UniProtKB/TrEMBL annotation, chains A, B:
SUPFAM superfamilies: Glyoxalase/Bleomycin resistance protein/Dihydroxybiphenyl dioxygenase (SSF54593). It comes from Roseibium litorale. The lineage of its organism: Bacteria, Pseudomonadati, Pseudomonadota, Alphaproteobacteria, Hyphomicrobiales. InterPro entries: Glyas_Bleomycin-R_OHBP_Dase (IPR029068), Glyas_Fos-R_dOase_dom (IPR004360), VOC_core (IPR037523). This is VOC family protein. Gene3D superfamilies: 2,3-Dihydroxybiphenyl 1,2-Dioxygenase, domain 1 (3.10.180.10). Residues 4-127 form the VOC domain.
């Protein structure tokens, strides 16, 4: 299997609330193709879906736990520590809740976590070892710094 | 916040087992910068991390539930239905467990789910509405087909 992940899907109980967080709160644009049970967002090279937990459960043929916190996180990387602070404040204004406020972290970066509407964890981080390209793509360094 | 997700982090209890699944099983290459608690993989435009659940819990300052199934899924998109079957078989050989075998699904594609070592859900799918570029990048269609 070629080395890629095409889609990240977040199971949500209230799609509208999570959708509003990304669209009204963060200013993201939903791609066509969604409906009242699913919403898609173009990312750099991949895509994000918000999907009704009930529908995902039906697709999987099993019940899904309501507790989603902590099994998986997604991260939004900034270009500077200042941009982390700005983005963190923006996320709170958009309806996210504080989990860990941005701080210098052991791996040499600057990072905080919020819980977004629906309960998923979003890290907002600056990693000086992982520069972002103009389009926001991340390229992991070839050498062996103390990245994290 | 610019529209992107930089990093997907899977919390795992046995990093070595999940690492072997991706590297020995699927043939993925780990990026430098990892250690016994974390492993990184370059994706198209973003990155994947496997991270010790205990360490993530420490970063977050809270306990994390051991049940990780179902709150979030990641998907690997193939270029054809045949490639789904091949990849699904490869994932099983690599140590994943059957959740839903590949089948024609309501949104017009062909998709199956496995549980990978560590319990996370991986969808393996062909979506005829979402062509992959040569490098594996997904671009969501501009029009309004019945994508999913």
């Amino acid at each position: 299997m070629e080395q890629r992940i095409s889609l990240i899907t977040l199971a949500v109980d209230d799609l509208e609330a999570t959708r509003r967080f990304f669209e009204d709160g963060l200013g993201w644009t939903q791609a066509p193709g969604g409906n009242e049970h699913i919403a898609f967002y173009q990312l750099t090279g991949s895509a994000l879906a918000l999907y009704s937990r009930a529908h995902l459960a039906k697709d999987l043929g099993r019940d899904l736990p309501a507790e989603t916190l902590g099994g998986m996180t997604i991260a939004w990387n900034a270009r500077s520590e200042e941009e982390v602070d700005t983005a963190y404040a923006e996320a709170l204004t958009a309806g996210a809740e504080v989990v860990v406020r941005p701080e210098k972290v052991f791996w040499g970066g600057y990072s905080g976590y919020v819980s977004i509407p629906g309960g998923h964890l979003l890290e907002i981080a600056y990693n000086p070892f992982w520069p972002l390209s103009a389009d926001g793509s991340i390229t992991l360094p070839p050498a062996d710094p103390e990245a994290g």
